[in-house]
Amino acid sequence: MSGTSALQNNYDDNARAYNQFLATPLGTLEAQLFELCIPPCKDCDVLDLGGGTGLGARDAINAGARHVDVIDISPEMMRQGQDYERSIGRSDAIDWHQADVSQSLDRQLDVGRLGPYDMVIANGIFDHAQSKAELRAMWANAARFLKPGGRVVANRNDPFSQAVGDGVYGVKFTDFERLENDEGWRYTYRVVDTDLVFESYALDCYVNDHTEVAREFCEDFETVRWEKTAVVRSDMAFWATYLQHPILYIFTATKRS
Is the pTM of this model over 0.90? Predict the structure, then answer.
């Protein structure tokens, strides 16, 4: 990933405050969408790419997963997750590995100890792909370790959504500039009323058709409907603009045969 050290530093700096995002409307929505995506998975093994503090990993464990491997570029994000796991007296459900998921994991980790997995979580990584080649590498890593027919749970953002507006849903996207490779945009992702600021990317190929690259590796794509979440159903008026112009999409796919 171009600027790997910058990305690592960005997440290291935000690690302690990262959970503040969960208190925003969009953070609450994301958490509930992920819960809907992760089915009961008793005794399954899960890989969480870009797993950070382990939020998705814990969702999988709560759904019955036997074990989760988290891979993330930020040691400080993972340290926060490890501290939390120790605080609840659990030390062996999650293993933590530092690597850049936009590059081949075979060159960075002892992959003989990884997988195969019943499910791969890929939350937040595709918004850091700075080229189509990096996006393809991310999807290749996701599929590489999945069992045949295994499930991917992933997300994407639409930084051009009209619902972003004045930040009523908890985020603002600013400072757009075209990438030098002309494959998309760099922009700043700000969580309102916090100090959380992330450098993010929106590749044209992903914004226009998020399955274009993914179809090389996966099939049976399905987006989870926002109306299924309790937070949206509890206040449809508040979410009306969002439902017309979604910011965050959570979707699933299965590994291509």
Answer: yes
